[in-house]
Design goal:
11 helices, D-amino Acid Aminotransferase, Chain A, domain 1, single chain, Dna Ligase, domain 1, alpha+beta, 6-stranded antiparallel β-sheet
């Protein structure tokens, strides 16, 4: 099977994308004919490390049996590249244009999930030049988190414990996006749930993963990529709480019209801290293409569920071919 792994990009998550792609390529195996397609930080396209024109890159992508977009953040995870691949008519792994665009925008995600009855944190959306009103401050309370609406890996995210810190936090967030969300802090355990769609259409949620942060006040960029956090899989939760989290994650998958995969990040309120049932989980955000290094949450969750990294790739690739061509491909068939 001819497969192109597409990675890099112009977003602040360029290096994270390169690491995800390196893990994917290392685990695809010899049964796949792999072409590496890199988008440089400057927008220059490269095929197997050779600079090429955009037109040539399109020819290469269009000639594949499937494309694996290992892109994070704007210009990749936001529906931009997905629209291009739809135009080329080539099957690709992961979410389509609408789910990618909606899942990338934290404010839009909240609106869609809340409309489906899921619990989300409140908040205020600001664009460049807009300001938080006194009424907003009173309603939100302190502390709050200031986030770029359309960025990932906690880039540009700040915790504000006093209102005098807000202008600096907004400036940091606006470096990554002109649209910013300000959310009240939710006190509770931070738990992620991975969702995987099989080629036969089954949608399954994996065992919850709890993030235990040391040193940092929250799961920021350094905690994610510099060893400032550890993961407990499965999280120490009451079975009923686990079932609720898995149900809500699949509901989020369906509400956003996802396909293939998603990671849903939750907060469990205080009344669920002791592991007993109770306390409806709060959806923090979603990742339509989460980190994909061997140390990332999504692959680790499925590893704990008994699906190793190469098998996980087989399932996603087979699903992508089925979605586009309307034919059933057994996971791992390319390996045989």
């Amino acid at each position: 099977m001819r497969i192109a792994v597409l990675f890099g990009g112009r977003s602040g998550e360029h290096e994270v994308s390169r690491k995800s792609a390196a893990s994917i390529i290392a685990n695809l195996g010899d049964a796949y004919a792999v072409t590496e397609v890199l988008i440089g930080r400057d927008g220059q396209w490269h095929v197997d490390q050779v600079p090429v024109t955009f037109a040539k890159a399109l020819d290469v992508l269009g000639a594949q049996d499937v494309v694996f977009p290992a892109l994070h953040g704007p210009y990749g995870e936001d529906g931009t590249v997905q629209a291009m691949l739809e135009w080329l008519g080539v099957p690709y792994v992961g979410n389509g244009v609408l789910a990618s665009a909606a899942g990338m925008d934290k404010a839009v995600t909240k609106t869609l999930l809340a409309a489906d009855g899921l619990r989300v944190a409140g908040g205020v959306t600001l664009r460049a030049g807009e300001h938080l009103t006194g009424d907003d401050q009173e309603r939100l309370g302190l502390p709050v988190f200031v986030k770029p609406a359309r960025a990932g890996s906690s880039l540009g995210v700040s915790r504000v414990a006093d209102w005098w810190q807000l202008p600096e936090a907004l400036t940091a967030a606006w470096m990554f996006d002109e649209k910013v969300v300000i959310e009240p802090a939710v006190i509770g355990r931070e738990v992620d749930v991975a969702v995987l769609e099989y080629p036969d259409g089954r949608v399954v949620a994996g065992p919850p993963l709890e993030i235990l942060v040391s040193g940092a006040g929250f799961f920021d960029y350094d905690a994610k990529y510099a060893g400032g956090a550890r993961f407990q899989i499965p999280a120490d939760l009451h079975p009923t709480t686990t079932e609720v989290l898995q149900d809500r994650a699949i509901r989020a998958f369906n509400a956003l019209g996802c396909r293939g995969l998603i990671r849903v990040d939750f907060f469990l309120p205080d009344d669920a801290r002791d592991g007993s049932p109770g306390g409806e989980p709060v959806v923090n955000e979603v990742n339509t293409f989460p980190g994909f290094t061997s140390a990332s949450q999504y692959p680790q969750i499925w590893q704990r569920a008994g699906i190793d990294y190469p098998e996980l790739l087989d399932i996603l690739i087979a699903g992508a071919v089925r979605d586009k061509r309307g034919i059933s491909v057994a996971p791992g068939s390319a390996r045989r």
